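Re: the 172-residue chain
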Amino acid sequence: MVSIIIPSRSQQFLQQTVDDLLAKAEGEIEIIVILDGYWPNPVLKDDARVVILHHGLVHDNVGMRGSINTGLDIARGEYIMKIDEHCMVDQGYDAKLAADCEDNWVVIPRRYRLDAENWKVIEDGRPPIDYMHIDNKDDYLHGSERNRYDFLDRGRKNGSKDIRPLALTIHR
């Protein structure tokens, strides 16, 4: 099973994201939506695969990291996937993740540009964005946006010997 955690502070595209995840899954999934500081209006559609947690009003919110941790506390899946509230996924994303992952991997998705109003990928000739680098500064993780080849070339120029593409999903 894949547990999908969605920390949410805005509802504009949340239902579309949940619908997309449900429609394109090919295996067993659970979606954990953590509402951080608001109630959606209208409320999310009822589905047995969706768990909704609420942190309270704006002054009670715990932020993205706190929301992710809340989702992790109840996740039952063998694989954990964190996704934003405004994302589209590929058909069979869950099966691909389970087939391609190895123990203790962090998988970072390729990012395409999304026309959220029409819920489709923007085909503009630009390459997708690969998040290839994770910094551990000040005891927190920060992803750097880089085009794959730009990052590899930049690393080589700086003499880095340990540049590995990472294949936001965490295997437990």
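Helices lie at 14-24, 63-74, 93-100, 148-157.
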